[in-house]
Amino acid sequence: MAAVLRRGIKFISFGSSQVFSGGCKHGKTSTLSSFSSSNRNSSSSSKIKVDLDSSTGIAVMKFQNPPVNSMNLEFLTEFSIGLEKLELDKSCRGVILTSAQPKIFSAGLDILDMYGKTPEHYEEFWRAVQDMWLKLYGYSKITIAAINGSSPAGGCLVSMASDYRIMADNPRYRIGLNETQLGIVAPFWFKDTMVNTVGHRTTELSLQFGLMYSPSDALKIGLVDQLVPEENILSTATETMTKWLDIPDHAREISKSMLRKPTVDRLLASRDADIKNFVSFIAKDSIQKSLGLYLTMLKQRKV
Ligand SMILES: CCCCCCCCCCC/C=C/C(=O)SCCNC(=O)CCNC(=O)[C@H](O)C(C)(C)COP(=O)(O)OP(=O)(O)OC[C@H]1O[C@@H](n2cnc3c(N)ncnc32)[C@H](O)[C@@H]1OP(=O)(O)O
């Protein structure tokens, strides 16, 4: 984690100066940005590109971990740190999450981080997955997922953990928690996030079958909020964010926390037990065999 912090995340500013915020409403005072020019880094190893427009208060986090934005340990760490930095930056009021990879929002957790590794690695990996979700689901600022491609499992979790989901209306894309198709199980907090999004009955069917939804079916069940032509996704997300920004921050923030805190607290109260469960589950021979088979099928393009 420290290594990633030192390497930094690529921040590019545009619009007005990064130093003084121009567009802060509702009692937000102009402030020295935490992204001073000396903090900007154009490291090419960066897996997430962040553009913050301090004149509007809108940041765009673009996933760029080719080929499919799978969330490995480094990606997850960068993601959590990037969110944290933006949360601390008073010139930022909302974050749009999207992908720089064509056709894929995120392929979910990196299966290679869950296959053939040591218990210590599994433990570190799972803690990073928890960190990411805890930060995003409990995020004080507005988050909009601009889902410009397929979004299985962990990708769907990231989408559901956002405040609003806009998906590209491309019938080839899919979104859902497909864990059972891999022979694994979505943990309780993935399940809770889905129940909170689409309700209990739909989650029962989704999780047991590992259902992946087309954009129109995802809209029908409320897994996404809006479909737009692919080329309009970022402009729609920005326009939508502007509407969210009209709401006084403190009132929106308290409302969000009232709805989400009990779910966040459930994991906070059992983080170590959840990690222990993950490690013992994932290290089982039968589970490793399932993941190995799934990886082979992926490589043979049979998934
Ligand atoms: C008692 C209960 C206890 C519970 C404890 C918890 C249990 C564990 C919980 C774990 C939760 C897991 C969450 C996850 O997110 S698992 C990941 C699920 N993701 C998927 O199934 C996606 C698989 N990928 C695809 O469907 C396609 O790749 C995709 C549609 C995303 C893109 O298709 P496309 O045709 O464009 O690209 P390719 O398929 O050719 O893929 C390109 C290369 O990328 C590799 N790949 C794809 N996805 C992943 C991934 N998730 N992780 C690692 N690698 C991935 C793929 O193999 C290709 O590699 P090669 O080029 O080398 O062949």
From TrEMBL:
Q: Which UniProt keywords apply?
A: Acetylation, Fatty acid metabolism, Isomerase, Lipid metabolism, Mitochondrion, Transit peptide
Query: What does the sequence similarity comment in the record state about its family?
Result: Belongs to the enoyl-CoA hydratase/isomerase family.
Q: What is its EC number?
A: 5.3.3.8
Q: Where in the cell is it found?
A: Mitochondrion matrix
Identify a single GO molecular function assigned to this protein.
delta(3)-delta(2)-enoyl-CoA isomerase activity
The catalytic activity, as recorded, is: (3Z)-decenoyl-CoA = (2E)-decenoyl-CoA; a (3E)-enoyl-CoA = a 4-saturated (2E)-enoyl-CoA; (3Z)-hexenoyl-CoA = (2E)-hexenoyl-CoA; (2E)-tetradecenoyl-CoA = (3Z)-tetradecenoyl-CoA
- Taxonomic path: Eukaryota, Metazoa, Chordata, Craniata, Vertebrata
Q: What is this protein called?
A: Enoyl-CoA delta isomerase 1, mitochondrial
- Extract one GO BP annotation from the record: fatty acid beta-oxidation
Primary place of residence?
mitochondrion
- Please state the pathway this protein functions in, per its UniProt record: Lipid metabolism; fatty acid beta-oxidation
Annotated Gene Ontology cellular components are:
mitochondrial matrix
A Pfam family that this protein carries is ECH_1
Q: What does this protein do?
A: Key enzyme of fatty acid beta-oxidation. Able to isomerize both 3-cis (3Z) and 3-trans (3E) double bonds into the 2-trans (2E) form in a range of enoyl-CoA species, with a preference for (3Z)-enoyl-CoAs over (3E)-enoyl-CoAs. The catalytic efficiency of this enzyme is not affected by the fatty acyl chain length.
- Species of origin reads Ameiurus melas
Main EC class the enzyme belongs to: isomerase
Instruction: Please describe the quaternary structure of this protein.
Output: Homotrimer.
